[in-house]
């Protein structure tokens, strides 16, 4: 007897069995769960919020859950780069391990992790996190732009926990005295910053121009501001290969050359810029919403009652942090529950009040009580709606480092090399 | 079974039937499924590069295999019928979900390996420079991409302690768990190995691959010290003798806080006249104090204290650090880049005997996964390659020699640290704690109710780390009615030898509450505290102590106010923990106090910074950690 029919039958049977298993797994995101009593491990950056709010939130969860469902909060390094490095290395451990070592490494899994929204593609494409079942989260209540950042390849890979957009801080006293309204275009910003800087002996405009992620964000904003026709989610090649790339960068470089952006700002990050503005040394500042509450409530702030915010005169990049479930997690049901716990309106509101994190829930932006207390919330919402993305890529780290290494030197030291620097950057991100 | 399963079943069954008939259609279906995977994987390959190494699972280059990469699949010749079944089995295997993860894991270069490197503050710029160059080199030459994170620990002691404890969750607040460690010398490695063994954490045993750079100990003297500036070398006995006799004020970083500090201490002890414990003791008594946390902290203090004292003064550290100082490189946040005036540049003398070299070993930590191990070894090779030589020079390092480790003081680290613990000066620390209304505010990241409670908890922990000969006193202060702003809760003179001290200290700290009074002038408090230390010091005693004041205050500062100097000038170092706004900004009283007294001002906006400040203080004053931990 020929073996073929038997072989075909056997393979078909195995196929069907396998299919059923796979389909069941696919239909039930919790099918692989193992109730090992280990609880859940939640990894987020160092909790620097007032009164360690996040830590208290975890305690609140633990007080209402049994020991086997408790959450262990692992605090990762404070800097964003180090946060990512720890998460990636930890996620890679079981994936890269030899078979006999993988099980042990999987048992050390961080079940729920927080990701800078720009890492979502990298983590999804690398298999560090799993796609989520959308119906199990209140996605309708989440800001669309934030939710988009958590999608990749047609699936939802994470859920926004907090979102962010940069604001233009300005001196109300000076603008009022000069009869000016906050600038709505880069050209207006340039004119006003030059005029007021000269007249009052101040810095015209400060922001995040140091060689780090803040610089990448600023460059992306400037290019979008100079273009108008680049899609908000343009990739690196679209962005830096466009005609607007040189125009956008040139605007910043000219700001330094004309000195309405002070040279020392080339070393400013968020806090240095805030300090400068708060000490009354600058007319305009690019910064994130957190600075608002700090400067408003600080008794020693020189601009405590003399500043306000407006949308940036260029589109802001979208910032924020997403919650994702690790591929190694065998506690996915609990992970889903914990994520939903962090998404409750009550939690999101307290996160905004205590830590200044912009909420991911749309409803909070129209809550009158919050608007009365934090009038800048509506400006922030406008900024979020018009926000653009940094060039998402599974290799974002390489992309952003290439941007910083090629373009930062053009700010002051080598402005003439901008065309060749842009060409070099393009070669690196699109070899 | 759900309808979706039936649909999939029908779909696949029909495909199986078709596959047995038409290999062409099957090819198309396979390609479609592969494309789905590659749609994701391929995006990464666009920026990373094709693999260079053999696939571990299959033993051949999978990336070069068109069936894996998809390259050339449209050119594939039609298969013969004889291979139909083989293809069928392959197709089914793919279709029914040989998981994507397996595909990824076996594709050689995916995911991009993350390599975390821990180094010293002195090597950070060099390693960052080389890491970025290595990443680019891999991309240029078409090898598997690697992403490298470079982090630093505040001191050698911190790195050694955390590494030999397996870099647990708490250590993550310092840096990501390192795969590669680049300590200052094999001396640090020796300590880490011993502690790892003691703690029975053999899986974290460090393995050295050899040196990546060299620096050497030098004696650096200011230009005003003309007796030495005309020379190019010194001998260890003459320096040890001069220090022991009190004829030379010598500064070095702490032996537990940096390799250079440890190497310097070992050399001084070894060449001490007579080599007895008494001489070691005299050397420690006459060294400039307190010990500095790291080499850059030491040079930062030198920069702040120019012109140097009239007494002959020298610094014992590495040529790399002195060259950084002379070149005006940034040393610390409060010592930014600048042009060092000619009159402040230090003259270097090298030992006339065999040089003392720091070998900067490249150390793998624990059991790495195979691909990470490969990446780590490739980075080591790159750091030792000719391509890195100019970078070493630019960062004031010498290339590693063939005889790695030659000239480094031989073993005996434990013994030397033990001698140092016994010989070093005890500390007399007067803690002055602000209890004004400002201390009611919370501290970011601290679960304690207010700044006062958070500071009190840190003081309690810090005192627990002091040695048995160290003394502590506790004051509180605020702008209280009357002439005296401070209250003495614990008189200076208490030592941790007294077993009741911790309980009494805790009781007093727990009872503290923020008062309604405003903050007092910190200069008045500092003057009173220094006077108190002077009154109670025992200058005639054998154990001359390091007196220091720890000022913890919430007072906000205005950076534009030029504060008056402390009068009269004082030599007792004042360490300031500034919880208020702008506390340590330039031109503030607190910063000025710290600079004038050669102490340090720590800006503490949150709980993490508070921990770092107390770590730094502990290293400076009593070597860090708990006494005797590494002895």
Characterise this structure.
By secondary structure, chain A is of the alpha/beta class. In chain A, 48% of the residues lie in helices and 13% in strands. Chain A has 19 helices and twelve strands. Chain A has a six-stranded mixed sheet. A four-stranded mixed sheet of chain A has the order 8-9-7-10. The termini of chain A are far apart. Residues 20-25 of chain A have low confidence and may be disordered. Chain B is an alpha/beta fold and 631 residues long. Chain B contains 22 helices and 17 strands. Chain B starts with a helix and ends in a 9-residue tail after the last helix.
List keywords for this structure.
heterodimer; A: 431 residues; alpha/beta; six-stranded mixed β-sheet; four-stranded mixed β-sheet; 19 helices; B: 631 residues; D-Maltodextrin-Binding Protein, domain 2; 22 helices; 17 strands; 15% strand; globular; disordered N terminus; disordered C terminus; transmembrane helix (chain B); VWA domain-containing protein (chain B); membrane (chain B)
Low-confidence stretches of chain A: 20-25
Please give the oligomerization state of what you see.
Answer: heterodimer
Query: What is the overall silhouette of chain B?
Result: globular
For the largest interface, the chains and their residue counts are: A-B, 70 and 75 residues
CATH topology of the largest domain in chain B: Rossmann fold
Low-confidence stretches of chain B are 1-79, 92-107, 404-409, 625-631
Total tally of structural domains of chain B:
4
Shape designation of chain A: globular
Count, helices of chain B: 22
CA-atom Rg of chain A in angstroms: 24 Å
Helix-strand layout with pairing:
The complex is a heterodimer of chains A (431) and B (631).
Chain A lengths: L3 H24 L12 E6 L7 H11 L7 E6 L3 H17 L2 H8 L5 E5 L3 H6 L18 H5 L2 E2 L2 E2 L2 E7 L1 E5 H6 L8 H15 L2 E4 L6 H15 L8 H5 L2 H15 L12 H9 L3 E6 L2 H8 L9 E5 L6 E8 L6 H12 L1 H11 L2 E2 L8 H6 L2 H10 L10 H12 L10 H12 L2
Chain B lengths: L2 H19 L1 H25 L18 H4 L14 H12 L4 H6 L7 E7 L4 H17 L5 E7 L3 H8 L16 E3 L3 H13 L7 E6 L3 E7 L4 H4 L3 E2 L1 H9 L4 E3 L7 H12 L6 H10 L8 H10 L8 E6 H8 L20 E5 L5 E2 L2 E5 L4 H14 L5 H6 L18 H11 L3 E8 L16 H14 L6 E7 L8 E10 L5 H10 L11 H15 L9 E8 L20 E5 L10 H8 L3 E4 L3 H16 L9
Parallel strand pairs in B: 1-2, 1-3, 6-9, 7-8, 12-13, 12-15, 15-16, 16-17
Antiparallel strand pairs in B: 3-11, 4-11, 5-8, 5-9, 5-10, 13-14
Helix pairs in contact in B: 1-2, 1-4, 2-4, 7-8, 10-12, 11-17, 12-17, 18-19, 18-22
């Amino acid at each position: 007897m020929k073996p073929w029919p038997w072989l075909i039958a056997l393979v078909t049977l195995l196929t069907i069995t396998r299919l059923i298993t796979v389909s069941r797994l696919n239909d039930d995101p919790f099918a692989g769960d193992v109730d090992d009593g280990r609880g859940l491990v939640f990894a987020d950056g160092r909790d620097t919020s007032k009164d360690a709010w996040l830590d208290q939130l975890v305690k609140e969860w633990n007080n209402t859950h049994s020991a086997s469902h408790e959450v262990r909060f692992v605090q990762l390094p404070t800097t964003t780069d180090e946060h990512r490095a720890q998460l990636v290395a930890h996620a890679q451990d079981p994936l890269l391990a030899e078979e006999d070592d993988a099980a042990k490494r999987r048992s050390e899994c961080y079940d729920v992790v927080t990701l800078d929204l720009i890492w979502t593609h990298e983590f999804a494409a690398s298999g560090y996190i799993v796609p989520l079942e959308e119906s199990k989260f209140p996605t309708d209540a989440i800001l669309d732009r934030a939710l988009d950042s958590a999608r990749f390849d047609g699936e939802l890979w994470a859920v926004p926990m907090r979102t962010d957009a940069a604001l233009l801080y300005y001196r109300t006293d000076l603008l009022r005295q000069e009869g000016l309204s906050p600038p709505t275009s880069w050209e207006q910003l340039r004119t006003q910053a030059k005029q007021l800087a000269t007249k009052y002996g101040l810095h015209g405009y400060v922001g995040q121009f140091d060689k780090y992620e803040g610089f990448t964000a600023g460059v992306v904003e400037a290019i979008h501001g100079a273009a108008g026709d680049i899609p908000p989610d343009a990739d690196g090649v679209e962005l830096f290969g466009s005609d607007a790339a040189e125009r956008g960068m040139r605007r910043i470089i000219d700001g330094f050359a004309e000195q309405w952006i002070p040279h020392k700002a080339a070393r400013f990050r968020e806090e240095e810029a805030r300090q400068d503005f708060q000490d009354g040394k600058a007319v305009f500042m690019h910064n994130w919403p957190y600075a608002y509450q700090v400067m408003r409530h600080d008794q020693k702030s020189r601009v405590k009652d003399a500043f306000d915010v407006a949308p940036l005169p260029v589109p802001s990049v979208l910032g924020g942090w997403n919650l994702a479930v690790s591929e190694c997690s065998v506690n996915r049901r609990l992970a889903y529950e914990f994520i939903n716990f962090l998404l409750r309106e009550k939690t999101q509101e307290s996160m905004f009040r205590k830590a200044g994190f912009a909420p991911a829930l749309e409803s909070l932006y129209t809550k009158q009580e919050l608007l009365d207390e934090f009038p800048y919330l509506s400006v922030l919402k406008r900024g979020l709606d018009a926000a653009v993305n940094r060039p998402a890529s599974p290799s974002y780290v390489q992309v952003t480092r290439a941007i910083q290494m090629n373009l930062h030197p053009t700010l002051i030291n080598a402005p003439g090399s901008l065309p060749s620097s842009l060409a070099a950057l393009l070669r690196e991100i699109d070899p | 079974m759900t309808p979706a399963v039936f649909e999939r079943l029908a779909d696949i069954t029909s495909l199986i039937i078709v596959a047995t008939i038409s290999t062409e259609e099957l090819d198309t279906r396979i390609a479609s499924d592969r494309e789905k995977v590659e749609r994701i994987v391929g995006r990464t390959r666009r920026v990373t590069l094709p693999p260079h190494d053999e696939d571990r699972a299959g033993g051949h280059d999978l990336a070069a295999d068109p069936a894996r990469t998809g390259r050339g699949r449209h050119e594939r010749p039609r298969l013969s019928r004889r291979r139909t079944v083989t293809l069928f089995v392959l197709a089914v295997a793919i279709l029914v979900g040989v998981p994507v993860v397996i595909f990824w894991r076996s594709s050689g270069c995916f995911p991009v390996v993350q390599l975390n490197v821990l180094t010293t503050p002195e090597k950070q710029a060099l390693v960052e420079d080389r890491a970025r160059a290595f990443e680019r080199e891999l991309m240029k030459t078409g090898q598997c991409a690697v992403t490298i994170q470079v982090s630093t620990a505040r001191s050698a002691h911190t790195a050694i302690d955390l590494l030999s404890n397996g870099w647990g969750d708490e250590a993550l607040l310092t840096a990501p768990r390192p795969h590669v460690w680049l300590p200052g010398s094999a001396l640090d490695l020796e300590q880490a190995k011993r502690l790892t063994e003691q703690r029975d954490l053999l899986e974290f045993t460090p393995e050295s691959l050899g040196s990546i750079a060299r620096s050497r100990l030098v004696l650096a003297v200011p230009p005003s010290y003309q007796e030495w500036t005309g020379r190019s070398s010194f001998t260890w006995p003459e320096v040890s003798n001069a220090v022991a006799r009190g004829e030379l004020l010598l500064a070095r970083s702490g032996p537990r806080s940096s390799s250079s500090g440890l190497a310097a201490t070992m050399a001084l002890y070894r060449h001490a006249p007579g080599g007895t414990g008494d001489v070691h003791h005299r050397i420690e008594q006459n060294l400039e104090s307190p010990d500095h946390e790291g080499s850059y902290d030491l040079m930062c203090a030198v920069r702040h204290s120019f012109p140097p004292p009239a007494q002959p003064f020298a610094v014992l550290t590495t040529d790399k650090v002195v060259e950084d100082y002379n070149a005006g490189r940034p040393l610390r946040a409060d010592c930014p880049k600048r042009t060092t005036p000619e009159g402040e540049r230090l003259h270097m003398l090298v030992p006339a005997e065999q040089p003392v070299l720091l070998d900067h070993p490249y150390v793998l930590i624990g059991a790495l996964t195979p691909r990470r191990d490969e990446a780590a070894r490739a980075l080591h090779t790159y750091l030792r390659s000719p391509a890195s030589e100019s970078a070493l020079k630019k960062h004031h390092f010498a290339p590693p020699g063939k005889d790695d480790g030659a000239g480094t003081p031989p073993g005996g680290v434990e013994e030397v640290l033990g001698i140092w613990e016994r010989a070093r000066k005890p500390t007399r620390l007067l803690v002055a704690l602000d209890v004004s209304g400002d201390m009611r505010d919370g501290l970011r990241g601290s679960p304690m109710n207010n700044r006062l409670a958070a500071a009190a908890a840190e003081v309690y922990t810090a005192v627990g780390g002091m040695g048995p000969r160290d003394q502590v006193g506790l004051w509180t202060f605020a702008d209280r009615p009357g002439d005296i702003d401070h209250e003495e809760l614990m008189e200076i003179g208490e030592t941790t030898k007294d077993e009741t001290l911790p309980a009494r200290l805790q009781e007093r700290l727990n009872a503290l509450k923020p008062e309604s009074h405003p903050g007092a002038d910190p200069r008045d408090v500092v003057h009173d505290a220094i006077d108190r230390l002077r009154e109670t010091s025992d200058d005639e005693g054998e154990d001359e102590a390091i007196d220091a004041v720890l000022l913890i205050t919430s007072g906000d500062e205005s950076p534009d106010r030029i504060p008056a100097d402390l009068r009269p000038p004082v030599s007792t170092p004042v360490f300031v923990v500034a919880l208020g706004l702008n506390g340590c900004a330039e031109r503030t009283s607190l910063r000025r106090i710290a600079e004038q007294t050669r102490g340090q001002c720590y800006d503490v906006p949150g709980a993490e910074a508070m921990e770092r400040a107390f770590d730094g203080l502990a290293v400076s004053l009593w070597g860090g950690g708990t006494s005797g931990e590494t002895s």
